[in-house]
Fold this protein.
Amino acid sequence: MAPSSSNASSTDKPRTNTSPFSLLPTELIVKVLKSTFHHPFLLSRHDRRHFLLMRQVCMLWRNVAYDTPELWRGLMIDWDDVSYLGAGLRPMQAVVDTLARWYNRAGAHSLALSINLSFQTPKMTLDLNYFISFIKTRKWTYLNFIDLPPELLSDLITQWGVVTCPTRVLAINCETSRGNPYRTTPEGRFELSPPLSDTFPNLVTLFLDYVQIPPFQHPSLTSLHLGPSSYLSDPQSFAATISPASLPQLEELILGGFRKGFARDYLGILDMRTVVHPSVRRVVVKGVEAAYALQWLELPALDFLRIEAVSEASVGGSVKLVKVVQDLAGILADLMSGPMSCQTLSLDDFGMESAENYSTFFSKLKPGIQRLHIEDYTIFGALDLSTSPALKHLETIVCTDTLYSGGTLPNHIDDLVKWLSLRRVQPGEVEKRITIYEYPWDKGISQRAKERMKPKYEGAAMLARQEGADIVFVETAESIYDMVDYPLNSDRYHLPSAGDRNYHSR
């Protein structure tokens, strides 16, 4: 049962007891309070400021806030919060005591915490055991540790070894400014004894970064995200971790990157058995090494694949990029060899640079791709369905950056029409139209300029329509980027929607 409002701080006393808002029913007040939070169960400093203001509306709103446990179930604490809360002689104790007062109001609800632990003062470092004791005695369903000191990870692991936690989402990042910036191997080691599944039997989502990762097992984990600085000792460790024997329920795999040479140098050399995982449906890889790591996997149920951050700059020039594209095409052909193939292929941040690279890439893939995310229309300059059958059954194309790359529809309409004419069905087959989405307008463009451009775009769209493609001009950049988002369960990775892309500064 939540503590009564008499325990509330004097800083949020209501401004009036005669407010007309006091006439609202309790259920509606709770909905209004929740609507002010960016994340309903993980309140940031911004959310907490709004929450404080809402508690000052009137006495009823204040009482409703303190008597609704679910409003107090989660916090997002960054370094500035820790510095402020920890002012005084016992900084860590002050932080923990403040957190305890907040979570005490959550009653029996499951708890969530995201906290930045990049402590800069010796006093806070010496008092970390106080924080460990606090964490160990609460029932968390969501835990996100940012800049967790490696020695604290070791202490947490030791104490968690004798406690069963109901945590469903766990994120650990051991990057810390107190470590050696030149080290090549993370200091923290994610190794639990007893096993991870004993300590976190309900875990479904796991994010790890800046830690050494020995092979581990978990029967219920469905989403695994290895960050860009996660450390696996060798390819065999990677394969052992991803295998169905280790993670039988895995559905989602996000590889944020591996150290140079981890996978690319082993292509066609390492004699290692391919891991066939029957339940993995969604995969995101960032960087060339993560993409090459797919050579050791076969995913017959794969439905969504996204490749990011593979470009001339990342591989060492245009000549090497051609070789990388050829290698990855072969790897993906094996990866997507199952009967379902891969229905959604997201390549808008691949960086292939040329239509010829796209043609090489698709020439090795089997038909079955239904939805394709690409940067612009330049892809159609070299595509030939006789050598690129993978795209014959496409239903949807989303072009994310036509305006900023110059690959607009009017500039490439001839290439598109040629490709569409080759794609047309044979006599007796039912024609399947294709829908192409594009954002053609610069942000802030005047209405007059837009009206001058429209005839050129509409004329090109009419030519495409005659060949079986419906062109949809989206009004906002946010909308076009949201179209390439995909429902992922990962806690620390979000597909690059408009809010994450600096499209206006390209």
Remarks:
- The first strand starts at residue 74 and ends at 77.
- The CA atoms of residues 384 and 419 lie 7 Å apart.
- Residues 1-6, 177-183, 498-506 have pLDDT under 50 and may be disordered.
